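BUG: 3D viewer hangs when loading the predicted structure for this chain

Environment: internal workstation, default settings.
Expected: structure renders.
Actual: progress bar stalls at 90%.

Input used:
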Amino acid sequence: MSEDKIKILERALEREKAARKQAEKILENKSVELYELANQLKATNSQLEEILSEKTSELKGVFENIVDAYVMMDLWGNVLKMNEAAKDLLGYDIDKEEFNLLNLVHKKDLEYTAKAFQQLYKKGSFTDYQARVITKEKEVKLVHVNSSIIYNKYGKAIAAQGIVRDITRETQDREIFERQKRQLDIIVENSPLGIVLTSNGTIIKSNKTFQRFLGYSGNELKGKKVKELTFHLDSEETRNNMNSVDAGKVEGFAIKKRYLRKDNSVFDAKTTVSVLKNSRGTVEYQVAMIEDITQQIANEKQKEQLLLNLERSNEELKNYAHIVSHDLKSPLRSIEALISWLKEDYGEAFDNKGLEYVQMLEDKIENMDHLIDGILKYSSINAEDMHKENVDVHEILEDIIDTIYIPEHVEVKIVGEMPQLRADRTRMYQLFQNIISNGVNYIESKKGLVEVACENEKNHWLFSIRDNGVGIPKEYHNKVFKIFQSFGSYNKSSGIGLSIVKKIIDVYQGRIWLESEENKGTTFFIKLKKEMV
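Structure tokens produced before the viewer hung:
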């Protein structure tokens, strides 16, 4: 081998060595980089494992603690996993027994459920699925389900998952609410009162009654201002009351006001307004209830007119009674004087029969005088003339016993204690005097007795005036209190005494009745309020 070839080979060898060293150097550097990269990958994998562990723990926490029931199943409905909420809802525990969700569906919902599952497989999810399921305890529950398909990394469906919510109570409550709302709507629509819902003085809704009151349709009233329907003279009062409500000064109010009908006629009503507040306590709506008082006002006006007429008639009757009394008593006095002169001048000329006739004339004149006085007393009894004062009934009875004529064979007794009344003393005297005198006058037995007693009831005083006189026939029991009604042989009866008693008791809104048998006596009962009008 020539020297030149040897040199060429040596140079080639040197180049190869240099290239190898360079390659070794590069390899060494790359090894360091690879080592560092491997360490980085290891650290990254460790971090990923930690993150995955954390996420798995988080998902497990969500799975276990979610409020709604969560169920995972295979594509045929067999349950694979479920949380505690699902166990509580369905009554089954997948850790203890296997079960298929489709077997829990109510038979009436099976067809609908099959279509829902077809949608699930086709579209990958469904929402708002509702069906009835039968729990392990045989309870029927209505559930709401949102479900989706679980796919593997190749996009193949491998399972399904769903959130199941029990809406049984919610649905029942909603049905009850809707039923009550329908019932309330029926009540509102058929109420005899007009009912209006307003906000800031604008009508939102009204019932048929209010629409009929004013002659508008519901659509015509909707959006109208209340002030447009209010009679102008009542606008200020309505506005002031509404301002007080809106300011929270009052919770509601009631007023009598007038509305304008569609035909511009005026409608009288009593309006009661209440407020509805929102959660912040601010007035949001007003509810008005409108009562038609047109007839009531007409009746009140008629009543006022009748009272005026009655007052005028009473006054005229009173004046007439005084006029009649004067006109009748004048000739009576003249006749009485003539009889007196006859007795004085011609008394000796009369035989016994003539004197008897003269006495009869005097008796008739006396009866006529009593009758006229009775009419005057009867006509003067009215509530307006009654004066209230403390009246001792025992004292009145003693005055009567001392004043009226009581024959020796008759005794008038006060039995027990007597109350004090808040009443007109003169009228109370008239009341008891007439009844006691009536009892005394109709006693024919050798030993007569009139007893006055009183019982203390809860809200009333019950007086009884009992005598052992001739009694009152049953056919007269309802007649004796009527004016000019009398019976029996007592010829001085005017027939007015008991009618005066009845009128006084009526003024005090009391009651009088009697119990009697012929030849056994009579008991009058008088019931008066403790708080007399």
